[in-house]
Design a protein that fits this description.
By secondary structure, the chain is α+β, with helices and mostly antiparallel strands. The chain has 3 helices and 5 strands; from the N terminus they run H-E-E-H-E-E-E-H. The strands form 2 sheets. A 3-stranded antiparallel sheet has the order 3-4-5. Strand 4 and strand 5 form a beta hairpin. One of its GO terms (molecular function) is zinc ion binding.
Length: about 80
């Protein structure tokens, strides 16, 4: 495995305050392993309420995007894994 490949699949979820959260980015061998790893995070805890409306804030380090539903957040997170 080259150095480029070893850093290609990194989980940088850092803002979820629940079981399974890690403080340092996790390096995984393949895109599939990264996706399976992300599933283990409880992204339901990304839900916030602003002015009575629920939004889901992306937990990826450095990403401040938000989505209107958990499904849209899951779709958005896929962008970080490709």
């Amino acid at each position: 495995m080259t150095d480029t490949q070893s850093h290609a699949h990194i989980c940088e979820i850092s803002d979820i305050k629940s079981i399974g959260t890690h403080s340092d980015p996790q390096h995984l061998e393949t895109e599939e392993k990264l996706r399976n790893h992300i599933i283990q995070h409880d992204i339901n805890s990304c839900k916030r309420s602003i002015s009575g409306d629920s939004i889901y804030i992306c937990p990826w380090k450095g990403c401040n995007k938000y989505q209107s539903s958990i499904i849209k957040l899951e779709e958005h997170l896929r962008q970080h894994t490709q």
